[in-house]
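request received
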Amino acid sequence: MLKYQQIAAEIEKYIEDNALQQGDKLPVLETLMAQFEVSKSTITKSLDLLEKKGVVFQVRGSGIFVRRHKRKGYISLLSNQGFKENLEDFNITSEVIELEVRKPTKEVALALNIELNEDVYYIKRVRYINGQTLCLEESFYNKSIITYLNKEIASESIFYYIREGLGLKVGFSDMYLHVDKLNEEEAKYLGLKKGEPKLYVETLFHLTNGQPFDFSKVTYNYEQSQFFIQTNSQFL
Amino acid sequence: MLKYQQIAAEIEKYIEDNALQQGDKLPVLETLMAQFEVSKSTITKSLDLLEKKGVVFQVRGSGIFVRRHKRKGYISLLSNQGFKENLEDFNITSEVIELEVRKPTKEVALALNIELNEDVYYIKRVRYINGQTLCLEESFYNKSIITYLNKEIASESIFYYIREGLGLKVGFSDMYLHVDKLNEEEAKYLGLKKGEPKLYVETLFHLTNGQPFDFSKVTYNYEQSQFFIQTNSQFL
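response:
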């Protein structure tokens, strides 16, 4: 973790510990610089990161303010993709249904930008939130990048292992989502009825060098899935 | 539009015009600086903006590469909120069902951070995509910020009017989404059956100064709603 990332994490913790609310003003730059004993450029980078993450917003000439979503029980749709710390508020567990090395289908090969005779790790899991089914997940990992996986890893956070175990840098992702009706198999795994609503999300994850390494297909239990997304002005 | 935003738009157009693909490399910084006759700091800001928007990705020591989502027919969920240019690929029209000034409910007052005796513009619209129902939208605008609206404005892009007509700066938004079953009224407006799936999205839009100005509730027709979201590493 770089210095500015560390400071950003500390500022986030400060907001948390002091239960600061939406619109509360943070100390001015000079105070933050003194408090964390860092340069102006470092503190600026920390604040920019926190702004991107939706933790603060900056008003030119006016200051830095806390930005918080106010609803309990909502999962961050974007962070959830990487299974991040903020999910620790929830008790998430995984049951591995299937894990094997196989050849990709055409669709998977195209997504991962590999040949049909290369290998992928195929993993099928049911994930639970507070004891209820959250989603059915099928993931395809490019085996030449994610060189090793096993059931124990897959029953925990695969992304944590990819970052910490394999030392890879996760860069960006493309998500495609739509709403549809559950088919029989999905309904069975989620404990719902065929024809009930589902949120279906396909995601293609890339390393920072642009290589796609994971193509995942997730079917969410609509009864357990409340998501929030914070956006910044570049999207609006 | 600031210089760096203008250059960013030109680079985006260059990628479009030359039909560059995912992973294609852009010219090096020096070439871009010369081509657009701008300083290094301007071109850097332009590229940072394009990276945030998901148009390019930068690999340290290696270059700037094109980032594109590959699927046709998907709407950008984040841009869609602001009803942006990339929706021009689709033919979107609106039918205004209701437009009036009223007092907010407790829920709306809380969201917009106003008192119960203040005024909001209430707008109910059905939006169509390529002639099919896309969504049913109910929006509540803080009238002390959005001082004037009428049916003609509401049948076009309200956000375009807010930016260009009222000169306001849209800053950030919080979206809450879940999947559920259509109730009778929603089904009627969308031309679907009660109990069929829906994607339901509540969004609270803020100005750059942090003031919430629009609280909207949108129910999407699941048959017409295919969304994509591009994320960057800060979320992963």
